Structures are given as C-alpha cells and as structure tokens.
Amino acid sequence: MTEYSIVILDPLPEASLARFRAQLPDGWTASAAKSRSPDDQRDAIASAPFAITGDAPVTAALFEHGAQAGLRAVHKWGVGYDAIDLEAARRCGVHVLRTTGSNAVPVAETTVGLMLALGRNLVAGHMGLQEGHWLKPQLAPRCGLLSGKTVGLIGFGAIGQSVARMLSGFGCTILYTKRTPVPSDVETALNARFVDRETLIATSDIISLHCALTPDTSWMIDGAALARMKPGALLVNTARGGLVDEAAVAEAVSSGHLGGAAFDVFAEEPVPQDNPLCHADRIVTTPHIGGTAAETYAVTVRRMIANLAAIADERAPDAGDVLVLCGAHRLR
C-alpha cells in the first residue's frame, strides 16, 4: 500500500494531533510543526508532500523550500487565503486548496453570539461576578436589544448569508454590500437589501464584516470609516483582522463614539499582549475560534483528505475548493 504523509503547519498539542490522526484513512500519516519559528516552519513544509495550514502563513520562501523537497499541495483549513502566497504556489507548481463554505455555520453562530454578548453586556457581567462585583446598576442602563436593529453585512457569501438567515428570527433589517449583488430571489428569501458601502456604514446599528482580505479591503474600516458610523453603533469582525485599524477601533470605543466592538480575528495572531483591543471596556475578544465546531470537525478533515487524495492519485479535486491547480489536473 502506498503511504502518504501530511504535515500541519500550525503547532498542535498532542491530543489535537491524535484527534486529527483518528480521521485519517489507512495509508496516511500526519505530523505537526514544532513551532511557528521560521526554522521549524521550513523543516515542517519540507517533511511531507502535503501540508495543511489553519493560520500559519505560507510565504514564497516556504513554497520554494517545500517544492524543492517534493511538496505537492497545500490545503487551507478554512476559507481565507490572504496568508498564502498563491503566485509563489503557481511558480513552484504546488496546488493550493481550501474548504469552501465548511465553516459558514460556526462563523455565523459566533457572529450572532458576539452581537448578543455586546448588546447585553454578557462578558462584562460575567467578569464582574468572577471578580466579586455585582455590576447590575452599572450595566443595566447599557443593555440593548438585537431585535429590530439594522444590521449591515460587508460581504455576503456563505457566511454573510448564514448570518442573515439566523438574524431573521430577531426581526432585524438586513443590509449588505458586495462587489456584485446576489440574485433577487436570494435577497427575498433572506429579507436582505443591497446598498453601497457608504450607505451601509452610515445607517447600520451593527456592522459585521464577512469579506476577504485583499489589497482593496485592507484597513477598509479605518478612522474615517469609524467616524461615519452611527453614534453608539457596534462593530463585529469574524472575517480577517487586517480589514480593520485596530487602534482606531479601540479609540472609537474608548471615546464613546462606538457602543462596542467584538473581534474573533486580529491583524497579528497569536495576539500580542499589547494589542489595544484586548484591554478595553466594551470590546469582546475571542482567539479566532469562530470557524471551529466539534460537529463539523470530522467532515472538514475528511474533505481535506479527499482533496489531497485526489492530487495523490492524479485526479482533479473538488473544483469548488481549488485556489491553484497546476499541470495535468487542470484537464482531468
């Protein structure tokens, strides 16, 4: 039997690696990088023909080093690929894939949960009780409803549409913006209305980000955009940290212009201790867990393995998951 090996570029605890290995079919083995240091990443990507990355960047230098050692494919565990150098992958003849739509429901649930946590001051109340403080007099006047709010979604793919679907029960007015409006029947089913970005920013009670990080969207929510948001509005980011000027958000919340903000993603991960988002009142932060769920874990792993097995067998993987496909696979 032919054996295939996978390396996970994100360092994992042994228990997490064992959980991953339990999903592998016969003939497949897996290891994980020792750390995120440049040397350990170079060693890892050169150790197997197939690599998986969750958050670990895959740079041009890593593609070149891996390709020289026989790297055939890199699979993104998730959707966003801004940390993967696709041009370098093409130059090096390395396939790149992702699990399109696999995390839509977990991210959408996280998004709605963060909206509720912000509006109802759940985290502040919980932390107060842990520290021995009964903060009802301070927090009650600041508690608001999600029901009936105007929610603006920047990006309206699988995740944005899942958020809209979940918010239908709250009676929210849903605005969205994206490069191309979705078909009218989709808008009708989700009770969503297309507007330009400036209108969305100026009229939404809650703005939630669900777009890719590209040169055009980098720091799209900067100080000027924050100033155009409604006083007391909330900002939620479960997409990519680089979409937002984090220091400007912390200042906008501190000044009282924004009612609060919630972040599951950050420009630098793991988050440095001095990140202002992690030390501000009325800002809720979570460690990029929005796309994970026990119920979707096995399905996602098996989907990645199926794509990599297709590459190993000289077959085309799922077309919807392809970012870069090199050589004969384009024709099969």
Structure description:
This protein folds into 2 domains: 4-98 and 294-324, Rossmann fold (3-Layer(aba) Sandwich), CATH 3.40.50.720; 104-285, NAD(P)-binding Rossmann-like Domain (Rossmann fold), CATH 3.40.50. It is 36% helix and 16% strand. The protein has 13 helices and 13 strands. A 7-stranded parallel beta sheet has the order 8-7-6-9-10-11-12, sandwiched between helices. Strands 2-1-3-4-5-13 form a 6-stranded mixed beta sheet. Helix 3 packs parallel to helix 4 (86-92) and helix 5 packs across helix 8 (158-167). It comes from Tanticharoenia sakaeratensis NBRC 103193. Keywords: NAD, Oxidoreductase.
Largest sheet, in brief, is: 7 strands, parallel
Order of helices and strands: EHEHEHEHEHHHEHEHEHEHEHEEHE
Continuous helix count: 13
Mean pLDDT: 96
* Fraction of residues in H or I helices: 25-40%
What is the 3D shape? Answer: globular
**CATH superfamily membership of the largest domain:** NAD(P)-binding Rossmann-like Domain
Share of residues in strands: 15-25%
Global Rg: 21 Å
CATH A-level architecture of the largest domain? 3-Layer(aba) Sandwich
Pick out its properties.
oxidoreductase, 332 residues, Rossmann fold, D-3-phosphoglycerate dehydrogenase, alpha/beta
